[in-house]
Amino acid sequence: MSPIPASHPPADRASFGEILREVLKHVVMVALLLLFLCPLLWLLLTAFKPYAELFNSPPSVLPVNGTLANFTEGWTVGGGKGIGDSLIVASLSTAICLVLGFPAAYALARRFPPHGQLSFTILSLRMMPPIVPVIGFYLLFQELSLFDTYTGLIIIYTFMNLPLVIWLLSEFIRQIPKSYEEAARIDGAPWYRLFWDVLLPLSAPGVLTAGILSMIFAWNEFLFALVLTGENVITLPKALASFFLFQQPNWGQLGAIGIAAVGPLLIISYYMQRSLIRSFSIELGGR
């Protein structure tokens, strides 16, 4: 008699269970993604609705007569200046934070222990609630003629984000072996070539991460911009708030300006994420 082939139902059940878990995991991920994207999607749809459609009952999900007037009108009534001022202040403060933060992070990483009190002290400056120093800054800026100026707001945002940049970069620099620096010094590289050709390329992921966070925090900051500026400097969060404070809100224009506010951050984060992955791959591949 020929032997009866043995069946393996446990293996089949196990494979079916794995497939079911993968399907459920993807379903949950898609559901969470839709949940988080719903506000952004509704903002996008509102930006293309004419004023009359905003108050339909029941409300229409998709715009019936789509229009681009909300973007042009929102840009004219204050969105354009808000975006421009935010770009100026956020980009310049981020650049200053990186220029000042990199040497300070190098000194912190190479001259002080990794778990010392100095690192925590620097980071604790970022933990201070903005409401604590804002009145003092207001009085100081009035005396120094920095109130309602780009320079004053750039100084404040640099002060706000510099501790975080120093702390993040110091952690990345600590991961760079000192042997790379010693080899460059043996080859006769001056200090500026050491920074530019050795330390900066190897710490590129940290620089990108610190730059992204500093840009996002400066772009979204509201309290300092509200208290320390007047009519000359109007950042985007302050411009959005003015729609509620000084006029009846036009939700279509708010949606258009909101999309314009979120769009640059999404684009920067997307391309910086690709650069981060590429930088990590190059660094790991070279070790």
Automatic annotation (TrEMBL):
Transmembrane segments: 23-45, 87-108, 120-141, 153-173, 194-219, 251-272
A Pfam family hit: BPD_transp_1
Cell compartment(s), UniProt: Cell membrane
Gene Ontology annotations of biological process type: transmembrane transport
CDD domains membership: TM_PBP2
Keyword Transmembrane: yes
Superkingdom of origin: Bacteria
Keywords: Cell membrane, Membrane, Transmembrane, Transmembrane helix, Transport
Domain ABC transmembrane type-1 positions: 83-272
Protein family according to the UniProt entry: Belongs to the binding-protein-dependent transport system permease family.
PANTHER family associated with the record: INNER MEMBRANE ABC TRANSPORTER PERMEASE PROTEIN YCJP (PTHR32243:SF18), MALTOSE TRANSPORT SYSTEM PERMEASE-RELATED (PTHR32243)
Protein known as: Carbohydrate ABC transporter permease
Organism: Microvirga aerilata
